[in-house]
Amino acid sequence: MAHLIYEYTANLASEADIAGLLLKSNRALIAQSGLFPVGGIRSRAIRLDDWCMADGEADYGFVHATLKIGAGRNKGERQATGDAVFAVIMEHFAGLYSRRYLALSMELYEFDEAGTWKHNNVHAKFRR
Amino acid sequence: MAHLIYEYTANLASEADIAGLLLKSNRALIAQSGLFPVGGIRSRAIRLDDWCMADGEADYGFVHATLKIGAGRNKGERQATGDAVFAVIMEHFAGLYSRRYLALSMELYEFDEAGTWKHNNVHAKFRR
Amino acid sequence: MAHLIYEYTANLASEADIAGLLLKSNRALIAQSGLFPVGGIRSRAIRLDDWCMADGEADYGFVHATLKIGAGRNKGERQATGDAVFAVIMEHFAGLYSRRYLALSMELYEFDEAGTWKHNNVHAKFRR
């Protein structure tokens, strides 16, 4: 179960290519050598229409990603996974970053395996 | 303080009966033998218009629930609470699950009691 | 990296002055004696159109804030920060609280510093 949630400020929307970001993110997670079953990878983006950054005095924008994964991957695997997804983010927003105020950030968060419930018929497709 | 956040993909919206899901979820939490004061139970649903699941190649849908509760319930109480809410989710989406790609998931998350603040005039109604 | 996420129910929208809430919240964080670099402070608000509180039988409303901060501040600093932001929330919604059902709540959440990634050109503005 790998969940990726993007929040992005509305002033980036016209240039953000969110669909492309999500697809590239999933591909980066799929590429992590089988760490994350394909059928369990879910990314989404939430547009923020009301936000305030720093002193609110300029046209600041930000993208924040929360990557939630099941417990059980080791430190090196977690670091490599986070690095891979953040590399996607950095590349994806490189153009915007070069010409406007922009903060990119990501947090990695592990589920407590004792505290998750699942029911998913997509896994079967990828086991075929 | 029991908070329940649903995220659901927009391709489920027309058949999801979100209002019904939320009401049944609250009732399941209320039914947990006084574990959660009625006036502190808050559920909500966020519609996801931008998402990508797995390889993005089919009409996948998902519902993810985050159940946040205050610390202090024991392991058995936490398990029973999660089981009860997830049973609601499974029943609610059984029809959709039987005929389309769908992933249902839930995580349980405990607040650090040292780190919550509250001010709530709804409790008084249920103390009457 | 201080992130503040407000969720508020749609029945509060016309009287909530969300822009004012966000700006005051950022100012409260900036005022925490340099604990949070100005360029890393990001607040946002998400309007909840689908929610259910308690038994769902009255026109309940709620505002829930999630304050996410980097690890490394001590307990006293975390408490003072939470108190300062919650004081803003209490003051901001005092009028609404006095005349309708309303629950205000906040949780404080620390990032695991091993699990965050950042790239932010707003910091440079405030270092000048």
Q: What's a concise summary of this model?
A:
3 copies of one chain form a homotrimer. The first copy, chain A, is an alpha/beta fold.
Quickly list its features.
homotrimer; 128 residues; alpha/beta; Macrophage Migration Inhibitory Factor; 4-stranded mixed sheet; elongated
What does the model show?
The structure is a homotrimer of 128-residue chains. By secondary structure, chain A is α/β, with parallel strands linked by helices. Chain A has 4 helices and 6 strands. Chain A has helices at residues 18-30, 75-92, 94-99, 123-127, and strands at 2-9, 41-48, 50-53, 61-69, 102-110, 116-120. The radius of gyration of chain A is 16 Å and the shape is elongated. Chains A and C meet through strand 3, helix 2 and strand 5 of A and helix 1, strand 2 and strand 6 of C.
Judged by helices, strands and strand pairing, the structural class of chain A is alpha/beta
> How many E-type strands of chain A?
6
**Radius of gyration of chain A using CA atoms only:** 16 Å
Strand % of chain A is 25-35%
What number of domains of chain A? Answer: 1
Query: Which consecutive residue ranges of chain A, at least 5 long each, have pLDDT under 50?
Result: none
Overall mean pLDDT of chain A: 96
The number of helical runs of chain A is 4
CATH class of chain A: Alpha Beta
* Shape descriptor of chain A: elongated
Task: Write the H/E string of chain A, N to C.
Answer: EHEEEHHEEH
Largest interface: A-C, 32 and 34 residues
Largest sheet of chain A: 4 strands, mixed
CATH topology name of chain A, in short, is Macrophage Migration Inhibitory Factor
Question: What is the topology, as strand order, of the major beta sheet of chain A?
Answer: 2-1-4-5
Helix content of chain A: 25-40%
CATH homologous superfamily (4th level) name of chain A: Macrophage Migration Inhibitory Factor
CATH architecture of chain A: 2-Layer Sandwich
Distance between the termini of chain A: 19 Å
